[in-house]
Structures are given as C-alpha cells and as structure tokens.
Design brief:
- The structure is a homodimer.
- By secondary structure, chain A is an all-alpha fold.
- Chain A has one domain: Orthogonal Bundle (Farnesyl Diphosphate Synthase).
- Helix content of chain A is 70%, strand content 2%.
- In chain A, strands 1-2 form a two-stranded antiparallel ribbon.
- In chain A, a hairpin with a 5-residue loop joins β1 and β2.
- In chain A, α4 runs antiparallel to α5.
- The longest helix of chain A is centred in the middle third of the chain and has 26 residues.
- The relative contact order of chain A is 0.12.
Chain lengths: 340, 340
C-alpha cells in the first residue's frame, strides 16, 4: 500500500488504495454481482430499470456487497451463494437510498437531482419497494433461513433508525446516546449483516460469525461518524455530499450534540434558532463552523470514529490471517482516513 | 345465509353475512393474528407503533389474512404457521397502503386524512418499510423457503403493478390489457399468494396449491374491478372511498377504458381534457357519469367482475367440500355483490 505525507508531517496510508485493495481481490466476484444486479432490476415495466439504474448502475462504492464477498472468502468459502447475497445487500442499500430521498410534504423547497426530483416521490418509493422485494428473492436462493432472518432483521432495524432520525431531527435535546442509536440502526446494522451472512454461508463457528458481525457494526459506526464529520468539513464534493447539508436540514449529528452540550446559553440559543426553528440566515453556517471548532466538536467526533475503527479491526483478530482479512483491515483505514 | 330482495325483483344474498361467515369460522385464529400484529409492530421508536396502528389496529376488513387462514384450514391444516403468515400478509398489505398514500411532489393539493397527511410522507414510507421487513421476519418463522419465495415474488409484482399504474395514470391510450396487467399485479398477486401459502403449509398437492392460487388471483381481479366500478357509483362512504376519487386523480380504470374506446371524437376530447390534461371543471364528473352510462361502461365492468368471480369459485371445485370452502365461496359473493 502506498504511503503519502500528511500536512502535519506524519505519514498516512493512501486511502484510495485502501479500498482498491479490496476491490482488486474481489474483482471477479464483483463482476458477477454487478451482472446479477442488472439482471434482477429488469421488469416489464420500463420505468423500474430506468429509475433503478439511476442509482444502482451509476456505480457508487459498492462497499456493502464487497464486505459480504470478502467476509465469505476470508472464511474460505468456495461456493456461489455470496454472489446473490452481495447483490441482495446492495439492493437493500439502494432501496434505502431511494426512500431516504423522498421529500417530505413540509420540505419541498430543496430540489436536488435525486431520483425523486426526476421521477417524483411515488416512483422512488415504489421502485424502492420493488428492489427490496427482489432482494428477498435473492436471499431465498441462498436456501438459508438464518441468512433471511439476519437480513430481514437488519432491514427492520434500518427502518427503525431512519424513523428515529426523523424524530431527532430539529430536536437539539438529542443526546449522544440518541444519536448513537440512530447511526447503529440506520447504518451499522446493514454493515454488520453484510459481513455476518458472509461468515454464515461459509459455515464458520458462531464465534467467527459474531466476530464478523462486530467488525461490520463497528466499521459502520465509524463510517457514519466520519460522514457526519465530513458534512461540516469536506471541502469538495468527492464524497457526493455538499458541506452543510445536515445543517440546512436541521439534522442533529454528533458534532452538533457535542457543541450544544459544551456551549453557553447564547450558543444554545443559536443552535435552537437555526436547527429547531430552522430560521437560518447568511453567515449562520460559518458561525456554526466556528462554534464546532471552539468546542473541538469535529475533532472529538473523529476521535470517536477512530475508537470504533480500532474495535472493528480488533474484532478480526481471531479470524484466519489471509489477504481478505488484510483487505478488510484496510477498509477500516479507508473509512476513517477519508476524513483527512 | 340471509337473502334480500334486489330492486329489480331478483333475490340477492346478504353480503354482510357473506363475509361474517368467514369471520366467524376463523374467529379464534384471527384473534391470534391480531395479537401477533400488535406484538410485531412494537418498537423502541414510539412513532412506529403510533403510525402503524393508525392503519393496522384501526381494523379494516382483514380480508387477505382471512384468506390465508381459511385456505390453510380448508386443507385440513392443524399447525400454527398460518397465524404468522396471515399476519405477514396483512403487514405487506398495510405497507402497500402506507406507500400508496405517499403524495407526489406535483400532487400536494388534495389533502386527505391519510397517515402521510398526519405524519408526513417520509414517516409513512419508513414505517411501511419497517412493516415490510417485519413481515419477512414473520415469514422466516414458517421455516419454509417456498413460502418466502411466494410472498417475496408477490411483493415484487405488487410494486411492479403500482409503478405500471403510475405510468398509465393520465394516459387515455391505456388499453384493457394494460389495465388488467395493473390490477393483476397490484391487487390480485397478494390475494393469490395469501391463498397459496395457506395451501402450501398444509402440504397439499401442487395442483391443490395452484387451485387456491387461482382462486385468489381471480377473486382479487373481481375485487378490484368492483372497487373501480364503485368509485363511479357508490352513493356513500361505506367502503371508505368517495365517489369520483379516481376521476379527480386521473386514474385510468376499466370504466374509462371502455367509455374512451366506445365514444366519439368529442367524447374522447372530453376524457383527454379531464384525465390527461387534468383540466376539470364543475359538472365534469356528472358528465363523465353520463358517458359511462351511455356506453354501458359500468355495467360491463361488473359483467367482467362476475366472470372472474365465477372462475374463482370454480377453482375451488376440486378441493375438500367443507365449511371453510363454503366460506371462501361466500367471499366471492361478498366481493361482487357489494356493488349492489
């Protein structure tokens, strides 16, 4: 792996390569997953593949299906079932994205180039349902009720997390615990399930399967923490998100929770006005950034992320030491180091 | 069963009793289904049971789970699995209703007292996803991959039908075949699956399972035809729908397809203005009713419904002749006779 110099003089792994390593190792499997994804989003109703391909075929990191493939291979799996399960995991993720982009009635001003902006809310919802149903058909082909249980449970938990996020939005009384519940559910549950099913089909011990689930869960938390950090710090659109989206939507992420708790009365009034009453003016996002910096809210969010990342890496310790394990360890670096 | 006189002097079965018969026969099972439904919509996130109960606990006919229960019992099933599957079927139906009520961006003027009007689009979508995921967990408990395949396939077909309906809306070139595709998919597929899984868990022959599926599919088509008939003819809100909803939404249902095909140029221009361009004025709904009457469009829609109803009844002929079969035959009467 390449090493690049950081501005502060320390050395940093090249994080582009960190994910490329996993991609290269799983390239042949992933080509089959991509074909299966294209096959299973076909329908007699032309709008379905048209809308689905907007998200699915457009690419993206495909991180979650890569986790399923690598987890299975790490465990020495030689069969075919990891292909269908990886596609199923990607379909669940895509359905979630489609549904996440549905615009609320009270919330129509922010038009973005999401699927719902192009085809309308209703089409996004229904095509999401289609992909979600197709993901279950793909799972049935694994012929494992346990796999279905793991992924159906994860899907329910994702929905719970998304609803919880809806109820914490615009609520500056949200605690760090509330926030953690949301990201464990909406993000980490699918990361965990994606890894666990890979271990399960390889018929590893329950301990090993559990270790893979722990790896995925902690990786997912770290991933989401960095995402929420980036929303206040990324300087470009490399990750597909604009700086300040969370602020403009009144989302209560960890940086806000920390700054709110650590601030004085004036500062709390500022957060309430901008994120609760949604009364935002020119200069507010910049002032938010100053408050986050003053209270180390972004730096401490990253420290939390590093903690979970380390837990993820440690969870793999008892598993076979092979190139797939090394690649999964590199994914941890990718998830955290993209913050820099 | 009670018999009541019709206005034209012929005798008609009392359709309230037609469904009561099935309800009475399945009362003990249905009480367990209702308990399971309440149990499985619980969540740490309070908004979920709150919103779900708006639809689920509010009642409704519970026709689909009743079909699963009666199909299993008709086949002599003595186990417990029909309870969970009936709850799963109702959850799929409820999730579909929640997603069906999502209001499109372009479509915000018609405010109704649906879940989305009270809690917003996004909550409706996410709670629908939650119920959908929970339905799959309930299915996993049946320990039958075939059952999962039947219901996952039906779910995908429902979504396809709903998307197809979206693309036929406001399109007066919609053919009878297009319309049939939509209602087979969005309505009949779940009726068919609900019956088929009941037969499957009872381990009947493939022929018997298929017969139950055929019964459900044809019953579902008849049911939807009558629903679309009622939208232009019901004189009260007994069925929860106001007269003219489909017209106001520009939905192209069979009565419209027939009247459009049978009308002259002026009439077709009327349908295009009102349903395609959505330029509707006072008196248009009344004029639509006159055109439908002039071309026997409503009467012929009912004749089609009677045909499918008869096919449904006939499909049961090879199955054991017992009270559950008689109750399912009565359901056919209920679905059609509610038109009168």
């Amino acid at each position: 792996m390449a090493v690049v110099a950081r501005l502060d003089g320390t050395q940093l792994k090249d994080t582009t390569n960190a994910l490329d390593n996993l991609r290269d190792l799983c390239a042949a499997d992933m080509a089959r997953v991509n074909q299966l994804i294209v096959d299973h989003m076909q329908s007699n109703v032309p709008l379905i593949p048209e809308l689905a391909s907007h998200l699915v075929a457009a690419g993206g990191k495909r991180l979650r299906p890569l986790l399923t493939l690598a987890s299975a291979r790490l465990c020495g799996y030689e069969g075919d079932k990891h292909i269908g399960l990886a596609a199923a995991v990607e379909f669940i993720h895509t359905a979630t994205l489609l549904h996440d982009d549905v615009v609320d009635e009270s919330d129509l001003r922010r038009g973005r180039d999401t699927a719902n902006a192009v085809w309308g809310n209703k089409a996004s919802v229904l095509v999401g349902d289609f992909l979600f149903s197709r993901s279950f058909r793909l799972m049935v082909e694994s012929e494992s009720l346990k796999v279905l249980d793991i992924l159906a449970s994860a899907s329910a938990v994702i929905a719970e997390g998304e609803v919880a996020q809806l109820t914490t939005a615009n609520d500056t009384a949200t605690t760090e615990e509330d926030y953690l519940y949301v990201i464990r559910s909406k993000t980490a549950a699918l990361f965990a399930a994606a890894c666990q099913v890979g271990g399960h089909i390889a018929r590893r011990s329950a301990d090993d399967e559990d270790a893979l689930g722990q790896y995925g869960a902690n990786l997912g938390i770290a991933f989401q923490l960095v995402d929420d950090y980036l929303d206040y710090s990324a300087t470009d659109k490399a990750f597909g998100k604009g700086v300040g989206d969370d602020f403009r939507e009144g989302k209560i992420t960890l940086p806000i929770v920390l700054a709110m708790r650590r601030g004085d009365d004036d500062e709390r009034a500022f957060w309430r006005r901008t994120l609760e009453k949604m009364d935002q003016q020119n200069g507010d996002l910049e002032h938010a950034g100053e408050l986050l910096a003053a209270h180390d809210a972004l730096a401490d969010t990253l420290i939390r992320a590093r903690g979970y990342a380390d837990t993820a890496r440690t969870a793999l310790a008892g598993l076979p030491d092979n190139p797939h394990r090394a690649a999964l360890e590199n994914v941890v670096d990718f998830c955290v180091e993209r913050a820099y």
